[in-house]
Structures are given as C-alpha cells and as structure tokens.
Amino acid sequence: MALADSTRGLPNGGGGGGGSGSSSSSAEPPLFPDIVELNVGGQVYVTRRCTVVSVPDSLLWRMFTQQQPQELARDSKGRFFLDRDGFLFRYILDYLRDLQLVLPDYFPERSRLQREAEYFELPELVRRLGAPQQPGPGPPPSRHWEFSG
C-alpha cells in the first residue's frame, strides 16, 4: 500500500531534497502530507506531494506550496477537491511524474487535454499538445454490418 511506503522511507518519499519548505524551521511539521489524495471531478487520485508540485509556478504548485491546507476545497472524505475533468487529469498527473507526454495512439481528446493543461498552468505541456501531431495509425476502422435476409 502506498501509505506504508512513506513510513518505511522508500525513495521519492519526501526525504532528501528538503522540498519547497526548506527555508522554514525544520522543527515545523509539513503543511501537507507526503501522500495527497485528490478528488478530481469525482475521480480519486492518490499521489505524492512532490509529484503535484513538480512544475514550479503551476496552479498545483501554488496550491500545495503557497496555500494552507485549510484554504483548499475538500470533499466529504477530506480529499482535496478540484472541479475539473477527472478522466483527463490522469494524463496531467502522468506528465507531472516525469515531464513526458505519452498519449494513446488514437486520442480524440487532445484539444480538451490542452485546455486542462492551460487551466493547470503547464506551459510546456500546452506547447507539446499544440504541436502538430505525428502521423499515426489514425482512428480504428469502422465496421459496417450488413444483414441479408
């Protein structure tokens, strides 16, 4: 379970780099937990805080570094709530993990994902999504069924 990983001190668990709060007293507890639970449009995501704040000056970076936890909207279970497209957020989160854009071969939601990247203030992702697409296999072939009888 992901929560157990942080207690064992596994890599990427918030130790090491000091994070964005390194200028404050080390005796202060962190404002946000290392593992954050997000409810994005009804889809629940559990990730590390360091992933959410991986792009400086983005909306998520500001939310989780410049604001207090009590200032952010929460759902009835206490998860941080974002009223955005929960399905498309998986691609935003994937991008935040390693700053790579990986989409399925046939992805008709590209312009909607670009709009989400603009909302989250991820300019490099916006640029990549706006770049001309490389030719791919195209949409799956449509099948027409003929019935004789």
Automatic annotation (TrEMBL):
Functional note: Auxiliary subunit of GABA-B receptors that determine the pharmacology and kinetics of the receptor response. Increases agonist potency and markedly alter the G-protein signaling of the receptors by accelerating onset and promoting desensitization.
GO cellular component: a single term: presynaptic membrane
Compartments (UniProt record): Postsynaptic cell membrane; Presynaptic cell membrane
UniProt lineage: Eukaryota, Metazoa, Chordata, Craniata, Vertebrata
Primary location recorded for the protein, binned into one broad class: membrane
InterPro entries: BTB/POZ_dom (IPR000210), SKP1/BTB/POZ_sf (IPR011333), T1-type_BTB (IPR003131)
Alphabetized UniProt keyword annotations: Cell membrane, Cell projection, Membrane, Phosphoprotein, Postsynaptic cell membrane, Synapse
GO MF term set: identical protein binding
Residues in BTB domain copies: 34-137
Compositional bias annotation for Gly residues: 11-21
GO biological process: protein homooligomerization; regulation of G protein-coupled receptor signaling pathway
Region feature Disordered, mapped onto this chain: 1-28, 130-149
Domain of life: Eukaryota
Keyword Membrane recorded: yes
Pfam families associated with the record: BTB_2
Protein's name according to its UniProt entry: BTB domain-containing protein
PANTHER family the UniProt entry points to: BTB_POZ DOMAIN-CONTAINING PROTEIN KCTD12 (PTHR14499:SF29), POTASSIUM CHANNEL TETRAMERIZATION DOMAIN-CONTAINING (PTHR14499)
